[in-house]
Amino acid sequence: MGQRIGYARVSTDDQNLDLQLDGLHKAGITDDHLYSDTASGKDAERKELAACLKALREGDTLVVWRLDRLGRSLPDLVRIVGELEQKGVSFESLTEKIETGSAAGKLVFHVFAALAEFERNLIRERTQAGLAAARARGRSGGRKPKLDTQQIKEIMRLMSDPSIPVSTIAKRYQVSRTTIYKVAPVRRPEPKRQP
């Protein structure tokens, strides 16, 4: 029989791990089999989680106090548990009473995986429907252009005059020099050098 290894995480230094650690200790996890991070699940690198996942061997069980302590999102959680399953590692969440070592626990987790896939498909469909609706109204995706057609014509005229610095044109239209070069890629005559 494998080892039971615990993982705990809090998002900020203001929060503390006591509640999670107490729950993990009650579940039989000893301090030498505990990993914990103080990091935002969304942004920060979770070094202790990486070490924990690396330490797990076939037959072991990863135990967390609550599902949201492990995954950044439902798809992330499903991905991690799927990787554990491939390694022959069971997963247990104490609060939700999910344990993938049993047939019932596996079933519950497969329902979560289906929900995660459903959520991804819904987001994709909504995005595509929104873009289609915008196109039907004559709008395309992306940012509104910084310059209108009239301004671009004026810039092209100004760019053909080598005595006007590009920085002056950019300042006048409140855009960067790069934007000026993009809309008016005409070559300016080189100023004549004095001998």
TrEMBL record:
InterPro entries: Homeodomain-like_sf, Recombinase_CS, Resolv_N, Resolvase-like_N_sf, Resolvase_HTH_dom, SSR_resolvase. Keywords: DNA integration, DNA recombination, DNA-binding. PROSITE patterns: RECOMBINASES_1 (PS00397), RECOMBINASES_2 (PS00398), RECOMBINASES_3 (PS51736). It comes from the Bacteria. Pfam families: HTH_7 (PF02796), Resolvase (PF00239). SMART domains: Resolvase. Residues 3-138 form the Resolvase/invertase-type recombinase catalytic domain. The keyword DNA-binding applies. The active site is at S11. Gene3D superfamilies: Homeodomain-like, Resolvase, N-terminal catalytic domain. Belongs to the site-specific recombinase resolvase family. This is Resolvase.
